[in-house]
Amino acid sequence: MPGLGTSFGRGGATTNLQDLSNADCILIEGSNMAEAHPVGFQWVMEAKRRGATVIHVDPRFTRTSAVADQHVPIRAGSDIAFLGALVNHVLSNDLDFREYVVAYTNAANVIDEDFQDTEELEGLFSGYDPEAGQYDPITWRYRPPAEMTDQERQRAEELEDEERRDQEGSRHQESHQAARSESHGSGGAPVSWKGLRDETLQHPSCVFQILKRHYARYTPEMVRDVCGIEPEQFRRVADALTRNSGRERTTAFCYAVGWTQHSVGAQMIRTASILQLLLGNIGRPGGGIMALRGHASIQGSTDIPTLFNILPGYLPMPNAAHHQSLDAWVADDEGKAGFWGNVRSYAVSLLKSYWGDAATADNDFCFDYLPRVTGDHSTYTTVKAMIEGRCKGYFVVGENPAVGSSNGKMQRLGMANLDWLVVRDLQLIESATFWKDGPEIETGELVTERIGTEVFFLPAASHVEKAGSFTQTQRMLQWRDQAVAPPGDCQSELQFYFDLGRRIRARLAGSTDERDRPLLDLAWDYPLDAEGGPEPESVLREINGTGPDGAALSAYTELRADGSTACGCWIYCGVYADEANQARRRKPHWEQDQVAAEWGWVWPANRRILYNRASAAPDGTPWSERKRYVWWDAEARRWTGADVPDFVPDRAPDFVPEEGATGPDAIGGRDPFVMQTDGKAWLFAPLGLADGPMPTHYEPAESPVRNPLYGQQSNPTRKQVRSPANPLNPSWSEVYPYVFTTYRLTEHHTAGGMSRTLPYLTELQPEPFCEVSPRLAAERGLEHLGWATIVTSRTAIEARVIVTDRLRSLRLGDRFVEQIGLPYHWGGNGITTGDSPNDLVNLTLDPNVYIQDKVGTCDIRPGRRPRGPALPAYVADYRRRAGIPEAGEET
Amino acid sequence: MGSLWGGLDDVQADAGYDADHPPRMGFFTDTSVCIGCKACEVACKEWNDVPDDGYLLTGMSYDNTQELGASTWRHVAFVEKPAVDLGMPTVGPPRDADQSAASGDAGIRWLMSSDVCKHCTHAGCLDVCPTGALFRTEFGTVVVQPDVCNGCGYCVSACPYGVIDLRKDDGRAFKCTLCYDRLKDGQTPACAQACPTESIQFGELDELRERADRRLAELHERGVDVARLYGRDPEDGVGGDGAFFLLLDEPEVYGLPPDPVVPTRTLGSVWKHVGYAAAAVAGLGVAAFSGRRR
Amino acid sequence: MARGEAPMVPDVEFESYYGRQIIKTPTWKTPDVPLYLFLGGLAGCSAVLAEGAALSGRPELERVTRLAAAGGAAAGTVALVHDLGRPERFLNMLRVLKPTSPLSVGSFILAPFSALSGAAAASHVTGLLPRLGRLAGVGAGVLGPPLATYTAALLGNTVVPAWHEAHRELPFVFGGSGAQAAGGLAMMLVPLDQAGPARRMALAGAAVEIAAAESIVLRRGLVAEPYQVGTPGRLMRIARNGTAAASAATLLLGRRSRLASAVAGATYVAASVTTRFGIFEAGLASARDPKYTVVPQRERLARQDGSAKMSR
Amino acid sequence: MADPRTFLGWPLLRQVTGADRLGRGHAARSERSDRLTPRTASADRVVDSVCPFCAVGCAQKVFVKDGEVIQIEGNPASPISRGRLCPKGSASKQLVTSPTRVTKVRYRRPYATDWEDLDRDTAIDMIADRVVETRRKYWEWEADGPDGRRRTRRTLGIASLGGATLDNEENYLMKKLYTAMGAIQIENQARI
Lengths: 891, 294, 312, 192
Known about the structure:
heterotetramer; A: Dimethylsulfoxide Reductase, domain 2; Barwin-like endoglucanases; six-stranded mixed sheet; five-stranded parallel sheet; 27 helices; globular; C: mainly alpha; Formate dehydrogenase/DMSO reductase fold; 11 helices; about 70% helix
């Protein structure tokens, strides 16, 4: 999300699936779209049928590669080197879409003179504090404009003091940084002013030149040595991308967890954003970056987050160090340019929807009822807290961490140390039965009779037994009606949590303790449906927001900061416009154009392609007839086109905002990125990312090779979860010489709870297997369909062996790197069972979003793994041989 | 009377339906856009309540379904082949041609194809079925009537493609019905509706054949010379298939017979020789008594 | 001309889907179906002998052959119904009469034959309604030869390579083998003086069967291989040798020694059964290996010089 | 086939007298084949839904008869999926009607070796008690920050994981309740 959020201002896919059919070239990387999003892939095939070139970059030759025009085998985790080289190719051959780049990106912005690049500091940017493992972004700022009005200069100093206070004052400002980066799901990071710009792009410190220098060493030969991709094939990809960009042609990118699940995940997406901006593909039909989300409503569960560091609409959870009042909480972004400038009205509206009448102006609208975060409370840190006995109660709802989360053993050790655990799911998943049949029971590391966790398994309602909305990968909300009643004790989470909230409030009814006020004042009365649960549409209406007269609002521009409006999630305001559930619209596509605006509802404001102002030239005319999409209608003095314009509807292309304008008024006619405080897309991110303004290739935490580009081996700001249960394989170790990467199969669903329990799916892929190249099979004596044991410093698992040419031995410089493929769906329960590959994965997290590095090193041996206590002994022996200190202090 | 082999324009009329019968429906499976997702296998089983049949990792690439049979009416085949024998130069930059069959860097080809009953113009299974359980529907498709079949198994030996089989614990023969019940209600068969990339196309057979010819020409023009149609020719050994294919390699690579022929084509000769033999036996009988007394 | 294990045809190069068979292995169960093939032949030819015996006044021969015809038909029907997946629906065999289905045609032969041969045998044994019995016998006699030979169409009209390639010879194998069996059985149970026709029937049948079977086994090309190697090969050789020995014994001692006649008869019957099992197993073997389907079809295509069998 | 005893229903007669002389089509039809209709034709209602598996959001039609789901297939009207589904989406009926689905509350006592029954109302009461108790026991008004103690008003005793498979409305109520409760260790699949 922050990858897209900081680059463009919103953290969601910039386009939609149908639009892929308008692309002239589609690059699929960090995704196996034909297998993970097969029905969405029809649009890629549509483009292919019209002559588009489809390129798939993936460590393995998958079902996507089978129908792609080019498959580029790449070493897992080395994507930034490949994409950086493409950026270098574009810049050094002047193949960028210059008019687009100058007008719509911050290429012309000149950066602070104190800024130093990784070229000068051996892989680090200026402002790195080695002890805290974090950056101080002060030197990454825009250089102030030559002449500034007094008001601007005064504002600049004010903000500068605030920045300095932030940096020196708080050593533990991770969550501040994380909250800031994650909160750019909607609303770019705030910079204090538009900065000095050299539109000739010649100034040595302008972003364009900095980028050129930064990626100068990312050559095709470097790509061969880092990624294992032959220069000749690299050039074919580069040609395909550049030939299919510009006024007449557009290229689209598709990615998924193949990019997000890395310790440099956000930066991989940043590189793609930079490349697409240089090629001028953002905001245009057949262009953009399609973030392919995994679960049905993962976009929804970050827009309306069950996440620790954000509130609905990407409002940051208040941070104890900075936000002790409503004003402090909104100060960071209030008043800046762009729609994010109205953050106070969004925040107050949220507090009104939480605490209703109890929230008044004089009590900061109950701001003080909000709990505050003090750093990283992400799931892996919480699991560590469970192991250390600091967290006692756990709800696991529609998720299966024992198989789906990384370092499965830590997950189970954590759950074994709880007082109570509530699991809500359709089937008895591994996370509910770890105490009875988990892997640690077999090895003796845990003993059932000594696990004190009290476990409640409450059956859940399926998707046809409850009404509600999902938010899909193209930011579309689609409503589901209820088909049948939930059987037996099954109930929806809506029913369960409403009931739980009611019972908790009943237990605290008489309390005069200040602690309980937030619960007692909570606006928790909803109209009830036939089964006694809250009426789902009433909750959606609350999310949409209501005005002073209680009527449903239709746009977030109607939200006010005076408490007269309430809104559960400001970016979803409009989903209940005109008192109608817009997400429930089902106008058949044959009665609409391809944009199909009357099917479901897309946030924000039902806009299907974001930043579509950029689909028109600076003067408002379409870049070309072939790629016409949104343009300026001179007579009607309005923006018009196939989609809801992502711009101020009546703002002329030549409009220049007056000095000191704030919020939406500060958006100029040539600023398509309306959520960014400078209206431009960020090639260079002065703020908002914990690990640097420009993506830089770092090796994963566990890598078979040294970082050929810099002395700095891994991401300097990566988040390490230091725990005896999370030892790391030393890099380029002979004991763990191979790379493994986990992935999904079409026939199964993530942790297997919804597919390994179904005969029709299990018979399609019945047993866990690993995919290895013929060369590796020969080297380690692995037989096709035989057994293999894969071991890392965490644990060892077994899997059947599939020897296939689809896994290529990659030549990196003078040596071969072998990659092992591991589908991760299996666990101890279900029709067929097996070991969970995620048990192998180490916890090294991306500093922006705390997602783990799914790539790691391992060893592989023929035969099944040891059983019982012999397993931990076998793994410990490996650790010893690799020189990893036993359970002592991390080196 | 009814024709036994060779071209046949109106299979329904040949099976006794009057002139206002609906057009002949069928499948055209364009394997060049198949992504091997097996949605067709699941959608078919879900609609027809076909039982699951075995959890076995076969090692045959991603095909653990193995073959068509009584409890598998759709089967997606997976073949991993080196791209070298593509009949096209793979060295040097590929033309801008649609290389859907090959990975651009001459590494590997991964063929996928969703196999199904061919609903032949001259169907061996239908011809040999003694009870009339197998019959030609008004849509020109070939269907087993489960309330009639007594499990004699003759159809299993008469199918040149090895599609139909007896279901072990049930005793009767089963195969794809081209969703005969859905067709009666004007609906699309479950597999065709589910197929994400429309590799499986359902429609009137004549129109599908035209569409297939256009697609073949389009692929040849893009340099994919290995593309060929299989079962489209009304003059082939089964009179052309109701469900035909666009393949990217020899048929036997997918487990399909290169030159399938309906046994009925030689039935005339079979009956003739049976007649001769019967006469011979009768002759023997007479001769046996015409000789000397003892 | 003993044939060794070595197949006549060298190993051939062909592509397949992981070596899996292309056509399905026939689902007919053994011993049900091979036994049915034998019993059909026995019953059919016994009915012919019975008519001959009735006309030529050989009461012992008539009694044995009438019982053999009726018994064979009944046992055959039981074997056939037992082989069905849904035996309770055996009557569906008479739902339609399909000339394209040898089994449908066969059902309309077996059913009346069983009735008529049963009636003839019953009337003969009980003496009731002799004229009707005789009439039924004639009917059975007429249906005898078709019953004995239609089973060849049953196998010949399949896609099983070993059977389909041999569809011209199989009727003669089955017809000959049926005659051989009927004659043999009669030689066992009928006194020498009345068994002359049985001997002649057996000898002639054997000759026809051996000639036809050898032309199948010795055929050039891959498809004869299943009849040469493995169990089917052995069975075919045992049957051929058995039949030849029985014929020699019949010629030399048939007329003189009651014991020799009985032994020869028994050998004839055994050889006939073995032939059926040999041919049945050969068919299964040719279905299980894809080469027997692919290679001959490739050769056929090549012969038609790749004419537009498949539009490229 | 028609009951062989009713002479007129005998297909052989239809074969001999009709146009289907070889008995390969019209003559061989059984009554069942004539009356055959798809089970969805007799559904009580068709409900608009969306596949619960991945984020493409394929629209589904859910056919219901006598309170049971009899079919789930793609909705051709959808501009995203055009009526198509992947293998998982196509298995949706089996997902919602799976015999191994748990429909009764399961409860495991601390240190116990097996599940036991527990009625739902009691279970939710017990959970509410535990939430209140754990919240009280691990409540924290302030925490050490870089600039000294700062007000946090939260509990670190309770955590929650889950929601990418849940509805927006459900995630909303969960975050609202947890936030009011002071529980901040709230996470979901966006993190894995």
